[in-house]
């Protein structure tokens, strides 16, 4: 895992994942898998959003217990 500790929006506390809703988030899972994920909701047991694979964005959910760490991008600025 890249050392992103100390950078904004990095976390290993799953409850902080709420801060990443509607942001591109890099996920590291306990099984060693890692990928970009666009987070849309966080429930009591799962995170919901879209994962890019197969050449397109696909709906995807992740059990919170499987997330080792995450890093979400800063908010995207808008023109209005």
Could you describe the 3D structure shown?
The protein is globular and about 40 Å long. Strands 1-6-2-3-4-5 form a six-stranded antiparallel sheet, with no helix packed on it. Strand 3 and strand 4 form a beta hairpin. The chain has strands spanning about 10, 25-30, 35-40, 45-55, 55-65, 65-70. It contains no helices and six strands. It has about 80 residues and is mainly β. It has a single domain (about 10-70), classed as SH3 type barrels.
Give a quick summary of the entry.
The chain is mainly beta and 80 residues long. It is 0% helix and 49% strand.
What name is given to the CATH topology? SH3 type barrels
Secondary structure tally, helices: 0
The structural class is: mainly beta
Radius of gyration: 12 Å
Strand order, largest beta sheet: 1-6-2-3-4-5
How far apart the termini lie comes to: 36 Å
- The low-confidence runs, each spanning 5 or more residues with pLDDT under 50, are none
- What quaternary form is this? single chain
Mean pLDDT: 84
The tally of beta strands, per DSSP, is: 6
In the CATH hierarchy, what is the class? Answer: Mainly Beta
The ordered H/E elements are EEEEEE
Helix content: under 10%
> What proportion of the residues form beta strands (DSSP E)?
over 45%
Anisotropy-based shape: globular
Overall tally of domains: 1
Task: Spell out the blueprint of helices and strands.
Layout: E1 10-11, E2 24-29, E3 34-42, E4 46-53, E5 56-63, E6 67-72
Antiparallel strand pairs: 1-6, 2-3, 2-6, 3-4, 4-5
Features:
about 80 residues; mainly beta; SH3 type barrels; 6-stranded antiparallel beta sheet; globular
């Amino acid at each position: 895992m890249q050392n992103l500790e100390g950078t904004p929006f990095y976390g290993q506390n799953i409850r902080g994942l709420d801060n990443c809703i509607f942001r591109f988030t890099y996920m590291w899972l306990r099984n060693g898998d890692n990928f970009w994920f666009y987070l849309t909701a966080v429930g009591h047991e799962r995170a919901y959003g879209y994962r890019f694979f197969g050449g397109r964005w696909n709906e995807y959910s992740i059990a919170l217990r499987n997330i080792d760490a995450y890093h979400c991008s800063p908010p995207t600025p808008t023109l209005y």
